[in-house]
Structures are given as structure tokens and as C-alpha cells.
Design a protein that fits this description.
Helix content: 40-55%
Order of helices and strands: EHEHEHEHEHEHHHE
Distance between the termini: 26 Å
Structural class: alpha/beta
Shape: globular
Largest sheet: 7 strands, parallel
Oligomer: single chain
Number of strands: 7
Strand order of the largest sheet: 3-2-1-4-5-6-7
Length: 261
């Protein structure tokens, strides 16, 4: 099975921690040249030092705040001039929780811009390079909520669904150029985002944090949370030559929690 990414250039969003960091480390281990993207320059620098250089890879990073789409486009365009990006990992922290009927309009517009619009900017910036080299992998890290909405995450459920359908449409349009577009749907994963959700539930219900964790784990057939590296393994496989005929799908990595196939 060919999972060698030597000579391929990858851009990984949200790569200063959590799933994004784990994905960047895995892609570098497979031989890719990795560009890290996040808001926190100090963390990016630390992750850069952790990346594998054993195959002569050249890694770099740039900082970007996805609430500023124009700045992201400027920086991504500059990168596209210097090299073709073959693997794009769209990965952005989710919107704040809360019931959808209480959400303010600006919460939707902000999340839409941070997720779908910024994803779209990056695809449009890099797809010509993917076409030119006959190799492209667009992998969107979203949520199992596209298959089964999650209670208390109204804005996130809505926006993640939009990203999933955008992704499927792109897969139909770009497949002929050797570009695949797929979604990875993490379940409950040990990240800062999960801790925020747990803390919010504890504050709202008055329950102990450990009790909230046990309740969440009980909904997973495997009775545990995922490690970021387990999600990264699915991302890395989809980025590889071995996944060349996998296109336009949602891949839940959730320990079996989602009730549908």
C-alpha cells in the first residue's frame, strides 16, 4: 500500500494543537513538506520543531486568523506563488455551544465565514496547482453532527452541514483532475475543544466534570474518548496515494457513537 508522501506539499490548518497538530506530525512522518497554519505563532514554532525532517523535508508556517478572510487569502496566495500545495487540511475550531433557537444571527455569519468561506478561499487558491501536478487531496475536519446533530451545538450543527454539502459538490467537480475531497468526522476527542464543551455542560447542569465525561463516554461503544492521533491517522490515509479512489465521502472516526451508517 502506497502511503509515501515524499515530494508532496501539505497545508494543515489549526495545526498548533489538537487534531491539526497530530495530522501535521503524521503527514511529515510520511514524507510530506508541511506548512502549518494557526493564529498562535509561538505554538506554531514549537510544532515546527517536532516535525520529521528525515526525508529532507522543508517545513514552514504562517499565522492567520480565520475571522479575517482577506488576510488569509493574501497569505495563501503568496504561498501558492512559491509552491504547489497538494494536500489541504481544512481544520478550524468549532463555534461556541448553545441551542439553535437562542443563537444570534451574527453567530451564524461568523461561523460561516470562519469555516466555509475560508475553506473555499484555500481551495480556490491551491486547486490550480493540484490540477497542474495531477494530485490533490482536500480533507475537511468537521463533525459527526453532519450525520446526527449534537445537542447543544446548534450553530455548529448548521455550519458543519453546509461545509459537508459544499465538500460533496467540490468532489463532483474536481474528481476528474485527480483531486479528491473528503470529510473526516471526529467523535469526542481529547482536545481543548472537548474540554470547553465539558466545562460548559458542567456549568449549565451543575454536574461534576468527571460525571459529564463518564456520561459522554458511555454513549460511545468503545467507552472512551479518541486521541488526536487516531483522527490524524484517518486524515493521513485520505491524503495518501492509497486513497486515490476515495472521493466525496464522510468518514466518522467516533468509536461507533453515531447511530447511522
Amino acid at each position: 500500500m502506497n502511503i509515501d508522501l515524499t515530494g508532496k506539499n501539505a497545508l494543515v490548518c489549526g495545526s498548533s494543537r489538537g487534531i491539526g497538530k497530530a495530522a501535521a506530525i503524521q503527514l511529515a512522518a510520511m514524507g510530506a513538506n508541511v506548512t502549518l497554519v494557526s493564529r498562535n505563532v509561538e505554538r506554531l514554532g514549537n510544532v515546527l520543531e517536532e516535525l520529521d525532517h528525515s526525508k529532507g523535508q522543508k517545513h514552514d508556517f504562517f499565522s492567520a486568523d480565520f475571522s479575517d478572510a482577506a488576510d488569509l487569502q493574501k497569505k495563501a496566495s503568496a504561498l501558492a506563488i512559491s509552491k504547489n500545495i497538494h494536500i489541504l487540511i481544512n481544520n478550524t475550531g468549532g463555534p461556541a455551544g448553545g441551542p439553535v433557537n437562542k443563537a444570534a444571527v451574527n453567530e451564524f455569519t461568523s461561523a460561516f465565514n470562519n469555516h466555509l468561506i475560508c475553506n473555499h478561499i484555500l481551495v480556490q487558491t491551491f486547486m490550480e496547482g493540484m490540477k497542474a501536478d495531477g494530485y490533490g487531496r482536500v480533507i475537511n475536519v468537521i463533525s459527526t453532527s453532519v450525520k446526527q446533530p449534537l445537542d447543544g451545538l446548534g450553530v455548529s450543527n448548521t455550519i458543519r452541514g453546509a461545509v459537508a454539502n459544499w465538500s460533496k459538490t467540490l468532489a463532483n467537480e474536481l474528481g476528474a483532475f485527480g483531486i479528491t475531497v473528503n470529510n473526516v468526522l471526529p467523535g469526542a476527542t481529547l482536545t481543548d475543544r472537548l474540554q470547553e464543551i465539558i466545562d460548559a455542560k458542567a456549568q449549565k447542569t451543575g454536574k461534576d466534570v468527571d460525571a459529564i465525561k463518564d456520561q459522554m463516554k458511555s454513549a460511545v461503544p468503545m467507552k472512551r474518548f479518541a486521541q488526536p492521533e487516531e483522527i490524524a491517522s484517518a486524515i493521513a490515509f485520505l491524503a495518501s496515494p492509497a486513497a486515490s479512489y476515495i472521493n466525496g465521502i464522510n468518514v466518522p472516526v467516533d468509536g461507533g457513537r453515531t447511530k447511522s451508517l
